[in-house]
Design a protein that fits this description.
Elements lengths: L1 H24 L1 H8 L5 H15 L1 H8 L4 H25 L5 H7 L3 H12 L6 H19 L16 H21 L5 H22 L3 H7 L3 H29 L2 H5 L1 H15 L6 H18 L15
Helix pairs in contact: 1-12, 1-14, 2-6, 2-12, 3-5, 3-10, 3-12, 4-10, 5-9, 5-10, 6-14, 7-9, 8-15, 10-12
Length: about 300
């Protein structure tokens, strides 16, 4: 019985990893499709609303168990870890391709390490530092490449890339907060309740400060664009979170983290299929970013000590 379970885990783990890579890697093309009709603010707010709404069965029964401090901290998690990045990614993709955005998103693990070292007394290794340096060079290349311009031209830098970098910094802060402040809560509970707390802000903004509802009712193509954003919120945030935590349980955090390297591949594939133009400099920058993330996030293998050894 145990043997069969152990044998079935690798296939199940790979299937879950493939699902997450496909869904999260598709997030950037879904944002792009939503921006055809809706403004960046509308895209970001509706993404939070749809994600929070589908998690209401998980969040509502649990929020009553929390004290005031926990609720305040979870509000910070909802705003920093979900609300702000949703707006930043949407705004960035008004001037950035979904392919480039997907690659820049891969910087998240490195900012987790860097922010942990700066503010949470975590250790940063030489490998982490080398990874950061290589990824940084890749980012400079990516944001400098434009058709007909040289890599060294600072005037060619696309400043909207810094919005994506700021979003990954938000993710880095958020993950460190979760790690150090919420040891007693499960990750699914943290995300569901934090989104619930961000829901009034997102919904209030969407209804009172935007033309989302008139567009949805009267503008051509709006229902389809809203459908893309619903998939983004429901699958890309709510369902994927549950799947990710399930993957960590049956496999390992290290195996689950490999999704970081697969997301850019899916994002690039969608971008190419959608007609996005990628120059040779883009590919050089992409390789540098992914290599840097891989080096900086790679764990040193521990030597296995035989059970018969005198070392206990």
């Amino acid at each position: 019985m145990t043997t069969n379970t152990a044998e079935s885990q690798p296939l199940r783990s790979w299937l879950l990893l493939g699902f997450l890579s496909l869904v999260w890697g598709s997030s950037f093309i879904l944002i792009k499709k939503g921006l055809v009709v809706f403004s960046p603010g509308e895209v970001g707010a509706y993404r939070i609303v749809s994600a929070a709404a589908v998690l209401l069965p998980l969040s509502l029964p649990r929020i009553a168990r929390l004290n005031r401090k926990q609720i305040g901290n979870l509000m910070a998690v909802g705003l920093v870890g979900s609300f702000l990045p949703a707006f930043l990614f949407a705004k960035a993709q008004t001037q950035l391709s979904s392919s480039i955005t997907g690659v820049l998103n891969a910087l998240t693990p490195l900012f987790v390490v860097l922010i942990g070292a700066l503010f949470f007394k975590a250790k940063i290794t030489l490998r982490n530092g080398l990874g950061l340096l290589i990824a940084f060079v890749g980012v400079i290349i990516l944001i400098s490449v434009k058709e007909g311009s040289s890599l060294s031209s600072l005037s060619s830098i696309n400043s909207y890339a810094f919005l994506v970098i700021l979003a990954t910094i938000c993710y880095g802060i958020n993950l460190n907060i979760i790690k150090h402040w919420f040891e007693a809560l499960k990750p699914v509970e943290i995300t569901a309740i934090s989104l619930l707390l961000a829901l009034p802000v997102a919904l209030g903004y969407l209804i009172s400060q935007t033309d989302f509802i008139p567009k949805l009712l009267y503008q051509e193509g709006a229902p389809l664009a809203a459908g893309y954003l619903t998939i983004l919120g429901v699958l890309g945030t709510a369902v994927s979170l549950i799947v990710f935590n399930g993957l960590v349980k049956i496999a390992s955090p290290v195996f689950a983290s490999t999704v970081t390297y697969l997301i850019p591949i899916v994002a690039i594939a969608w971008g190419v299929l959608d007609g996005e133009v990628l120059l040779s400099g883009h590919f050089i920058g992409m390789i540098a970013v992914i290599t840097g993330v891989w080096i900086g996030n790679r764990k040193k293998r521990k030597k296995v000590i035989p059970a018969t050894s005198s070392n206990v």
